[in-house]
Write a structure and sequence with these properties.
This protein has 313 residues and is mainly alpha-helical. It has one domain. Helix content is 75%, strand content 0%. It contains 14 helices and no strands. The radius of gyration is 21 Å and the shape is globular. It starts with a helix and ends with a helix.
């Protein structure tokens, strides 16, 4: 196991990142969506690596359970920024565009499928599928986020390691604290997150940009048929690749991008919640009252956290 860990840590990380990012870009551009999405779904299993790390360290479960429900939290601007960042990774603007666009992609991939407003008979089954997909996906992603935070708290934070510049540095710092096996699991988790995150982030940006301008868009289209759409994907991915060769800290860039997402999500949630309640837009598919209440509560909590972040002290 130690030899494998040495091999992983000894590989040029910049070269490995470049190969993975460019490989992911080529897959997204040249492989049709209905084939590509199959690999993305199975790749999410790699996120279980973070949960597996917990089996390699001593976990005080009673204390973990208590602090999960009743955390020690100082409600100052710095803590508010972290809370906004957590919101920004789970209720992100790019996810709004990505999920909506991929529902359209799924519809187009099925022969004879029509928008629900034109095919009300199919609405019940489709909405049930969307509801199951959304709830299960959010549950899985939030549990994964919880395991990431818990694994980091029980290893790096306990050891006083709180300033990590890169994901590779985090994995390397974990090895002397939790052993080679934990190091490899954490590294595999980082690899999986990267392979999933790159196409989703770049793809959602391309959908938003192309739809705003009126370009042809869609991962089922050939690159020659949607050059602007795929151009945005290529520029986004390559720009992210350049960051690793710049003096910008990737970890700090990720954190502050999450904070920005958390702030930007607030007005978008207001717009989405208002639209979801209007029959003139949604027809018979307006959101139910409980969903509307939860939507406004979510918007209010995120808005208050964002405001607190800008208040000194």
């Amino acid at each position: 196991m130690g030899e494998v860990a040495e091999l992983v840590s000894g590989v040029d990380r910049h070269l490995m990142t470049a190969i993975l990012v460019i490989g992911t870009l080529l897959l997204q551009v040249f492989v049709p969506y209905h084939r590509y999405v199959f690999f993305l779904k199975w790749l999410t299993l790699s996120l279980l690596a973070y949960a597996a790390v917990l089996f390699t360290v001593d976990v005080p479960w009673s204390e973990v359970a208590l602090r999960t429900v009743w955390p020690k939290l100082t409600l100052d601007s710095s803590a508010a920024a972290v809370v906004v960042g957590v919101f920004g990774t789970t209720i992100s603007p790019y996810l709004f565009f990505w999920q909506a666009s991929e529902e359209v992609e799924d519809m187009l991939a099925k022969r004879g499928a029509l928008p629900l407003v034109l095919d009300p008979a199919a609405a019940r089954a489709e909405l049930r599928r969307i509801q199951w997909d959304t709830w299960s996906g959010m549950l899985y992603s939030n549990l994964t986020a919880y395991f990431i935070m818990l694994a980091t708290a029980l290893t790096l934070h306990v050891a006083g390691i709180t300033d990590i510049e890169t994901a590779a540095q985090a994995a390397a710092a974990l090895r002397p604290l939790a052993g080679d096996f934990a190091f490899i699991l954490f590294a595999l988790g980082i690899l999986g997150v990267g392979l999933i995150g790159v196409p989703v982030l770049a793809g959602s940006a391309a959908y938003a940009f192309a739809e705003a301008i009126g370009w042809k868009s869609g991962l089922e289209r050939r690159a020659a048929d949607a050059r602007g759409f795929y151009g945005v994907i290529a520029v986004s991915v390559l720009a992210a690749l350049v960051i690793q060769y710049s003096p910008i800290s990737p970890m700090k860039a990720l954190f502050w991008s999450a904070v920005i997402n958390g702030v930007v999500a607030v007005p978008l949630l207001v717009v989405i919640t208002v639209i979801a309640s209007k029959k003139s837009v949604m027809g018979t598919f307006t959101s139910s009252r409980p969903v509307m209440i939860l939507g406004w509560i979510t918007t209010a909590v995120m808005g208050l956290a964002a405001l607190r972040m800008f208040i000194p002290g």
